[in-house]
Every structure is written in C-alpha cells, then in structure tokens.
Design a protein that fits this description.
heterotrimer, A mainly alpha (328), B alpha+beta (515), C mainly alpha (317), A: 328 residues, mainly alpha, 0% strand, C: 317 residues, MetI-like fold, 14 helices, 79% helix, globular
C-alpha cells in the first residue's frame, strides 16, 4: 500500500506540484535519478499531448468527446460578453459618456435594461463598453504574464543551481512586495492608463505563474522521455519547448483560467485605490466601485457589472474545464 | 486552526443570541463618564436614560493635533474643540473676544491691546498666565502662522495686559488671533494636546479613534456631553454602513451618501464646507496662458449641473474665489458672470486657435467629489469639442507634483481658508505668492489686493476685496465652481449643531434628545 | 542543519533585497511627508523646518542607511506620520492580521477540502455543478464589494454584527471572533473557490489511477476510498498551494481591513505608503515579507514530511 501511495503521489503532484524542491540541481545526480520514482506521464513520443490512462477511456466512445458540452457553454458565455463588447465599439443603446441629470437613478426598465446611474448614464451601455476594457486588461495581463512566466519558469527549473536560486528569490521578493506600492510606482513613472494597469498586474502575476511552470519543469526534466531526447542530442531549448512545455499545459490551463478571473478582480481592486482605468471610461471593476456609494439607493448599478463579471468568469471556467476534459 | 474554526462557527450560529445579549449589556453600561470606546452601540433598547457619549465618524484620519504644525483642514476641524485663541469666530463670522476678555484696537489699526480673561485653566489643571500667552504668540510667529508675520513687536504691559504692534495696519488681524494659546514650553502637542477648550483629548488610537472628554474646569459654557468619540473610517460607503448599523451616531457625510438616508431616522445639518471648488487651470501653461481659452472653459462649465449631479443640489455656486459664507466681502454679482454658453465658448476657442483642445485634468483620487466633478466637466467640455482626460493621482503625489511643483495642466480641488477672512482665500492669487499654484499673474490684481489689505476704512476695504474678486473672475484665473456642501448627519438621539464660516466641528453644543 | 543555515542566509538576502526595492520605490514616488502633515497652507520656511525636524530633508539613501543600521540593532525608527516609534505602532497589529489570516485559512481549508473532494466524487452530477457555480460566484466578486455586501446583508438586514465596530481581542475575544468572522469570510470565499477547483482536479486525477480501481474492484466503499486514500494523496498536491495562498490572503486583507475598520498591518501599510512614511513602510514591508517567507518555509517542511520522495532528495542533496 505504501508503495502505491508513493507511486501515486507523483500523479497527484502533477497537478500543482511541490513549490520548491531544493537539491534537484545536478542533472547527472544519481540520487535525483533514483528519486524519480514517478513514472513519466506520457510515452516518449513528443509533440502529441500526453495521453493518460483514464477510466473514461475504457468506456465506449461517446458521440461527443468528454467536455465538449462544457467547452461550448463556455464559448457561448464568453462569446456573448465578447460580442456585446465588440458591438459596443460601433453601437451602444445610449451614449456611454453623455450625462442627463433629469433621468438619473432610473430603475431597470424596458428602455434602460439595467437602469441609469447617478449621472443619468445608461448602465447597460456602460457595462457593454466596460466589459471590453476589462476583458482587454484581463487577457493582456494573463497573456503577457504567462509568456514571461513560461520563460522564467523553464529557465529556472531547467538550469537549477544558482540561476534557479536567484530567480526564485527575486520572485519571492516581488510577490511579498505590496501591490499598492508596485502600482503607485508604475503610475508615477508612466501615465495612468490601461497599459499601466496591465504592467502592474503583470508584475504581480508573474511570481505565481513562474513558480507553477518551474515546478512542472522540475517534474519532467528527468523523466525518461526527456532523457532519451537528450541522449539523442536535442538542444536545451528544444528539450524545454518541445518535450517539457507541452506536459505543463494542463497545470497552466487551470492557472490561466483562475488568472483571468483574478485579473478582473485585481483591476477593480486598483479602482478602489484610484489606480485603475480612469473615469469616465467604464470598466466593470470601476463601475462596481462607484456603485458601492449608492448601493442603498440604486443597487442595480452594481447588478449589471456584477452579472457581466459572473458570466465572463463562468465562461472561462467552463472553457478551462472543457479543455481539460477533452484534451488533457 | 481547526480549533479556532469550530469556535467561530459556533459563534456564527449563536451570533444572534449573543449579539442581543451584548446589546442589552452595552445599553446598561452607558453611564461610564470617561467616554471610553465601546459604549456606543445604538442602544435605545428600552432604557430611557439619556446617552452621554456621542460617536462621530469621519472618512479621514487625524493624527497630529499640534496647532502650530498640523494645519490640515481635518485636524483644524477636530482641534477646534481643544484649543482656543485670544479671539474666536462666531457662527455668523464675527471675531469676538475669547481668552481675552477685552480687546482694544488703535485708530490706525496698528496697535492692539488685550486683557486676558480671568479663571481660564488649561487641560493640565494649570491657570493660563501671561507667560503662556507670550510663549504661544512667539511660537506662532516662529512657525509662520497666517498673519503673524505682520507683528512688529509684542509685550506684556502687566500680568493681564498684552500689547501687539503691527508693522502694517490690519483691521482683519483679529481673525489671525484665533490661533491656539498653549502652555508655555509645550513640546508634544501632536500626541498630547493641551489647550483651554471645552474638550480635552482623553484617548487616541491610530487609524481607529480619538476620544474627546468634557473639560469640567472650562471657563465658559461647558459641553453638554461627557465625551465624543471620533472614529476614523475608510470611506463614505463604510460610514453609511456604520451609521445604519448604529456603530456611529453621526458622521460628516458626502451629499451622495446623505441623500440615501431615511429622514425619519437621521437629521441632516447642511452647511457649506467653506471652501471654493475650482477647476484650476495652470495659467503658465499653453494654451491656458491665453485668457480666451480660460474664459471659454468658464462658459462651458455649468456649475449648476455639477451641483445638481455631484452635490445633489446642496452646494452653492460661487463664480468667485471667495466663499459666499463671508457675506460681507463676497461679490455676489460674480455668481453668474459666465452663464453657460457653448457657442460663445466655441467662438472664444476658435479665436484663440485652440479648438479641438485636448488636456489632462489631474485629480486627487482620495476626494471622490472631485473625481465625480471631473467626470461631469469632461462631459460638459465634450459639448464644445474639447477632449479632456482624467488622471487620478494619490494625495501625496498631487501635493508634490501639482500643488507645489505646479506641473499640471488642469486640476480640481477645493481651496479652503485657514481663517474666516478674505485674505485667506485671495492672497494665493498674488503673482509671487508661494501658494499661487494656478500661476495667476496680473499686475492689476496685485495692486488691488495690496490696497485692500492696507485699507483701514472698513467700507473701502470691502469694496476693494470685491474688486479683487472681480478681477479674478474677469480674467478667469480658473473656473470657480462651488462651495461644496458639508453635511453633518446625526441620529435622532442627538441634536445641537453650530455651523461656522470655516471648517470645524463644534461638539460642545451637541446634546442627547432622549429619543 | 546545513539546510537550515542555508535557508536562513537565503532569507536574509531576500529580505535585504526587499528593503532595496522599497527604497527604490520611495525614490521614484513623488510626495513630501512634511507637506502631508502641514497641508496646503504651509509656508516654505515652515515646510523646511518640519523636514529638518523629521529628518526627511536628508537624501533618501541616508534615511535608508539610518533605518537599516537601526533595524539590524532592533530599532525600527520613528514613524514620520504618527511621530511615534514604529515598534509601538506595530504592537498588537501583527496579531490582529495573523489572527485574521488564521481564520481565513481555517475556513478556506475546511470548506475547500470538503467541497473539493465532494465535488470530485460527484463529478459531472448535480452537486458538482452547484459547487462549480459557487466557485464561479466566489471568484467573481471583488473583495471590497463583497465586504460592502456583507455589511449590508449580515450587518444591516440580519443584524449579526455592527458594521465598523471592531472589537479588540484583548478585552473581548469572543466579540473579536464574532466580528472578524465576516471579514474573514470575505477574504476566504474567493480563496475557497480557488482551492475547491484545484482539489477537485487533483482528486479526479487520483480517482483514475490503478490503485483506486483495484480498491473499487475489491469492493471498498467509495466514500472510504475517497476520504481514506485519495484525499491523503490529493492533499500533498495542494500543500504547495497554501504557500501561495498566504500571499493572496495578505493582499486580500489589505482592502478588507480598510472596509471593516480593522486595525491590522494591512491598513497601516496602506496609510504609510500613502503618507510616504519611509521607516514605517520599510518595517511593514519586511514584516510582511518575513511572514510570507516563513509560512512558505513551514509549508516546505510539511511537504517534505508528507511526501517521502522529496525528503529523500533533500537528504541526498
């Protein structure tokens, strides 16, 4: 039994993996090799995503592969939000910025789906446009921080030793450094705008993403198929990007999905400190922030951005789950 | 961890019962006279006893009560209850004797003689003596308090009589003498303030609360409540929650929050914040160095709309650099000097070659009202084809880059007067004033202002101050918007309110209603 | 032991690096503490006098060296804003934040594990979907908004606590917990949601292994397999996550402490940064970093304890 558990912890760890495994530096370290009890997740044929023996696969083949339904649901949800924000570039039911004191605090009705805010602006129109800005910030943040993290994580995990130590300590420092200070500094160096927020969020996201990639790299760098490839003379970049990276995708996928929702939350947290997207440009987070002051009088002002955020995040979760089930 | 968890869950489950119990307990414990924190739950539960402590919430933090170094508006509003000067301001803006029982001014308005009041005690129990007064005046000169630079000499004529000689005649000097009298040799006023006011500070915790307790040896009419606890809350939404939940009995509210309150449960005491909110334009920066551009913006900005939208109709349009509260000096003809007129504005812009103007309004992010105003202004300027962008910065950055560094295009801020006197508002527009952050530069204005200060005849002085305001408005030094409202909300259990022409909370007049 | 010493050295270096980062940040940020105290009406002379009194007229690197040389000797300097020794200001605050953090951890772990395993067990069935929906909702509401909602619902409508009325834990531990449960929940909900997601994935993965099939084949009850064997292995997988959670719990508590009026480290940190209080910010940043690094260190130890493979590697290294 004990052996079984040992064997299988490796599989469990495959999802998140230990945060730090000091001492895995030496590639030719016989100890490291010996300790690699864990069997490789995939057969030594690269390029193809890992095939894992799963119970599901023993079942008769269904018409649709597992997860298709969720994938579609997610795509539809994100699609709706995406489409609305795309339409908002050309058309919104009302002007996003035009104020009208006469018609403020109107409750939701057929003319104003989500009512109007304290300036008499149509909340629905603003939520459409705001979704666009928020999605842009979230995607840009996650995309750029994932790319950077992949590089940092792969290098750190593969090189090991002093390089690894330095990179990890740097990331430690950044991650325990208060976000508000990072954001303030960036705002004072650059102008306050959406690229500033993206940069600030990116810096805050890189440490945890990099760590995930690094952990994954550590797990696979001494796996049989990687060693085989190395013996056949594959270069380090090839080993990293062709053999190791595809195996890390499953873990990365969950992180990306969570990262997207975190980015949306973080953007609204920045609004709380006045560092987010600058008014009157709407963003979902900023709309929520402004709604809290009038929550007793016009709770619907929080409803529209809230619903859009929930829909978007729900969509991401479904896509993530669907992809995981279907391909990984 | 598990242990704490199970405990907390149990509490959550039993919360209702425990809370009821604790509520009734704290209602009984209300007699404590020290005003320690904690006895302030909205405990009207059954007991007909009058509440003796009042809890007041503010959305900022007061952390330094030294009247000579801490001159922020919030600190002044609070230590108004702790310190007193030789004179004091009344609710209608008069300056009357306070720690001086009698004041004589020479005909040339250069020599003032004060007779000290008898029986005044400091919070440390000592009597106020001439030594304390002399030390305080010297300290005020040393720390550069407003107006004290014009003192040529001061001396004690006797134990009770003080003579102050000014280098220039100034009939408004009494306004400056509201500056605190403190015990001679005070060193730690920031954290242990000692004054002569109706309250002394009995407790303080950073970022949490400050407790003022009634000073029973006060020379004048004593405070009605035994203690007032001032709670520092993060922002206005939390103030609203704390008030509705009964944690605080009153708060300094933004009009947006106040407008959501049920008039059945809350009394609103509306007054002005006694500051001029303005869209400050950097006169030294193109294109705002062109008077036509500044005038165009004045025509485009609709103060009434801002007041209606941002201040829920509570604010007062000004049109001048002075607050209407100083009614004697305020030039009321200026309120409508620039009626909203988009065509005129566009015309002026075209003339100045600045149509399609783009600029950035830098706003301090901690002031929601200014951020909101900026949004309305951006919208109004769009109507004349001007594209303004908002950039929020934190207060420290604003102070250094915008206010001191004057590195900005436009900003929105309320300028308040540390004194209830025109010079406090108007001196900053003199070309070489250190706080002339709008870089206003007009020889005409400098001249009128200098004459106004020097004038000894009250009528002449008033006329000159009005003229000075007219120059500012005519030249559109900036866009003067409104005197923002400041609303003190009380629960129905308390009443008593005094509004002054300066930013102050007078806690001594608050009393419990027995509701 | 060697491992321990090495860790300590590394810790010292990281902390030093963090203080340098703070120094650089303050070097870049505009803002004059003297002017923040004096307000807008102060004259130049008055500002200069206060700067000299506070010591902020010295170049920042001089201030940095005086702070760090004091820090090594255990003297954290004097707060510029509050004109009190930093150590006095910190007294009591750290405990509040740590207690809050522990409450959050307890809630997160308890619900995260239970819901995660349960959800994995019901993979694809209705309860799983319900829990997924909760996960989505939990990660959709920004912290400050969740707090306002809590105050509104639990404070004003259900009267479970008095919003803004923080209870000191010395005077009334029960009242403290009764008040803190709501801010703790506000931070814990998104964390729980994340944890549920990870645990669910880890457990589902584990369920597809050979030994589970064997156990099933032998007729071991499913709940037995789930909580007896699978959970043990899945937990190893999520322990590292806790290290990351610590950081997130702390950054979450910064805003929550503002909203609920809790006198913790986070609230002081925001205030010190906004008032450009260099000694106070430096000390707080180091405190927070230490807190995070030490928890990560403990997490490492726990992982090694739980996972013999890593312990093996460690011994060989």
């Amino acid at each position: 039994m004990a052996k079984k558990i040992m064997e299988n912890t490796g599989r469990g760890a495959g999802h998140i993996g230990p945060d730090e495994i000091p001492g895995t530096a030496g590639d030719e370290n016989p100890g490291a090799a010996k300790s690699q009890v864990k069997k490789p997740r995939r057969a030594p044929i690269p390029r193809v995503l890992p095939v894992v023996e799963r119970e599901e696969q023993a079942k008769p083949v269904k018409k649709h592969p597992e997860g298709t339904c969720q994938l579609w649901l997610g795509l539809v949800l994100v699609g709706i939000v995406g489409l609305l924000s795309l339409i908002s570039v050309f058309y919104t039911p009302y002007d996003v910025y035009a104020m009208d004191t006469a018609s403020r605090f109107l409750p939701p009705s057929l003319t104003h789906f989500f009512g109007t805010d304290n300036y008499g602006r149509d909340v629905f129109s603003r939520a459409m446009t705001g979704a666009g800005f928020t999605l842009f910030v979230a995607f840009a943040t996650v995309a750029s921080s994932t790319l950077i993290s992949i590089v940092i994580g792969l290098i750190s995990g593969y090189a090991g030793g002093i390089v690894d130590e330095i990179l990890m300590r740097l990331l430690d420092a950044v991650s325990s450094f208060p976000g508000i200070l990072i954001a303030l500094v960036i705002v004072s160096v650059m102008n306050n705008g959406k690229y500033t927020i993206i940069l600030a969020l990116c810096i805050m996201f890189i440490p945890s993403f990099s760590r995930i990639v690094r952990t994954g790299t550590l797990q696979y760098k001494d796996a049989g198929f990687v060693r085989n490839a190395r013996v056949f003379g594959a270069s380090a970049p090839r080993l990293l990007f062709v053999y190791i990276l595809p195996n890390i995708f499953p873990i990365l996928l969950s992180s990306v999905v969570i990262g997207l929702s975190n980015a949306i939350l973080a953007e609204s947290g920045m609004s709380y400190l006045g560092l987010g997207i600058q008014p009157p440009i709407p963003s979902l987070g900023r709309m929520l922030y402004e709604a809290q002051n009038i929550i007793l009088r016009a709770p619907w002002c929080a409803l529209a951005p809230g619903l859009v955020i929930v829909t978007t995040i729900a969509g991401f979760h479904c896509i993530g789950e669907g992809l995981r089930k279907r391909y990984l | 961890m598990k242990h704490i968890f199970t405990r907390s869950r149990a509490f959550a489950a039993a919360a209702a019962a425990v809370l009821l119990l604790s509520l009734s307990l704290s209602a009984c414990a209300n007699t404590a006279g020290t005003g320690a924190s904690g006895n302030t739950a909205s405990g009207n539960t059954g007991s007909a006893q009058l509440r003796d402590t009042f809890t007041f919430g503010i959305a900022t933090e007061v952390y330094n009560l030294d009247p000579f170094t801490s001159t922020t508006a919030d600190a002044r509003a609070v230590y108004f209850n702790i310190y007193e000067g030789l004179t004091e301001v009344t609710t209608d803006g008069q300056f009357v004797p306070c720690l001086a029982s009698d004041i004589e001014m020479s005909d040339d308005a250069k020599t003032y003689t004060f007779t000290l009041r008898d029986g005044v005690k400091f919070h440390n129990g000592n009597d106020m003596t001439m030594d304390d007064v002399l030390w305080s005046v010297q300290n005020a000169i040393d720390t550069g308090m407003t107006g004290y630079s014009s003192i040529a000499s001061f001396e004690a004529l006797s134990d009770k009589e003080l003579k102050i000689e000014l280098s220039v005649p100034d009939t408004g000097f009494l306004a400056c003498l509201t500056c605190a009298i403190v015990p001679a040799g005070s060193t730690d006023l920031a954290l242990s303030p000692i004054g002569t006011g109706p309250f002394y500070m009995s407790d303080y915790a950073e970022q949490d609360h400050l407790t003022l307790s009634r000073f029973d040896d006060y020379w004048g009419e004593k405070a009605k409540l035994s203690a007032v606890e001032i709670r520092f809350v993060a922002n206005s939404a939390e103030l609203l929650m704390a008030f509705e939940g009964g944690t605080i009995d009153g708060f300094d509210s933004s009009s947006g929050v106040a407008s959501q309150l049920d008039p059945e449960t809350a009394t609103l005491h509306t007054r002005n914040s006694n500051s001029v909110q303005l869209l400050a334009l950097n006169n030294a920066r193109a294109p705002f160095d062109d008077i036509r551009v500044r005038q165009a913006l004045s025509y485009a900005v609709n103060a009434d709309e801002i007041i209606e939208t941002v201040d829920y109709g509570f604010g007062v349009p000004v049109g001048s650099a002075l607050i209407p509260g100083l009614s004697v000096y305020y030039n009321e003809e200026l309120a409508d000097y620039y009626p909203t007129d988009a065509d005129k504005a566009k015309e002026l812009l075209t003339e100045a070659g600045a149509s399609g103007l783009e600029f950035t309004i830098t706003v301090p992010s901690n002031y929601q009202v200014h951020v909101d105003t900026a949004q309305v202004i951006v919208n109004e300027l769009a109507a004349i084809g001007v594209n303004a962008k908002i950039e929020q910065v934190d207060w420290a950055t604003w102070l250094e880059s915008v206010y001191s560094g004057r590195n900005y295009e436009a900003t929105i801020i309320s300028v308040d007067g540390s004194l209830a006197y025109p010079t406090a508002f108007l001196s900053r527009y003199v070309s070489d004033a250190h706080n002339n952050f709008v870089n206003f530069n007009s020889a005409e204005y400098d001249d009128v202002y200098k004459k106004a200060v020097a004038a000894t005849d009250e009528n002449e002085k008033t006329a000159l101050f009005k003229e000075a305001q007219e120059v500012l408005t005519k030249e559109a030094a900036s866009v003067f918007i409104q005197d923002i409202s400041s609303i003190n909300v009380y629960s129905k259990s308390f009443d008593g309110f005094a509004g002054y022409p300066l930013y102050a909370y007078d806690f001594s007049v608050i009393y419990a209603t027995g509701n | 032991m060697r491992y321990f010493i090495r860790k300590l050295i590394v810790l010292g270096v990281s902390i030093f690096f963090i203080t340098i980062l703070t120094f650089l940040a303050f070097h870049i940020l505009p803002g004059d503490p003297a002017q923040l105290i004096l307000g807008t009406e102060a004259s130049q002379e008055k500002l200069e006098a206060l700067r000299i009194q506070l010591g902020t007229n010295r170049p920042l690197y001089v201030q940095y060296f005086s702070w760090i040389s004091g820090f090594v000797r255990g003297d954290f300097g004097t707060s510029i804003k509050y004109s009190r020794p930093v150590s006095e200001l910190l007294a009591g605050r750290l405990e509040v934040t740590v207690l809050l953090g522990l409450m959050v951890m307890a809630i997160t772990l308890f619900f995260g594990v239970i819901l995660g395993v349960f959800s994995a067990g019901k993979n694809g069935k209705l309860p799983d979907d319900v829990i997924s929906a909760f996960t989505i909702l939990g990660t959709s509401v920004p912290g400050f908004f969740m707090s306002i909602l809590f105050m509104w619902i639990f404070g004003l409508i259900l009267h479970l606590f008095a919003p803004g009325k923080y209870v000191d834990y010395h005077s009334d531990p029960a009242g403290f917990i009764r008040y803190m449960i709501f801010p703790a929940l506000a931070i814990a909900i998104p964390q729980t949601a994340t944890l549920v997601k990870y645990i669910r994935a880890a457990v589902i993965d584990e369920l597809s292994t050979a030994y589970v099939r064997t156990a099933k084949g032998k007729g071991v009850p499913f709940t037995m397999i789930l909580f007896g064997h699978v959970l043990k292995n899945a937990i190893v997988a999520i322990v590292p996550l806790i290290g990351m959670m610590i950081g997130e719990i702390f950054s979450g508590s910064i805003i929550i402490e503002q909203v609920f009026g809790i006198p913790g480290v986070g609230r002081l940190l925001v205030s010190s940064v906004l008032s450009r209080d260099f000694p106070l910010t430096q000390t707080l940043v180091v405190y927070v970093a230490l807190l995070i690094v030490i928890t990560n260190f403990i997490v490492d130890l726990v992982i090694q304890f739980l996972d013999p493979r890593i312990r093996l590697m460690e011994e060989q290294a």
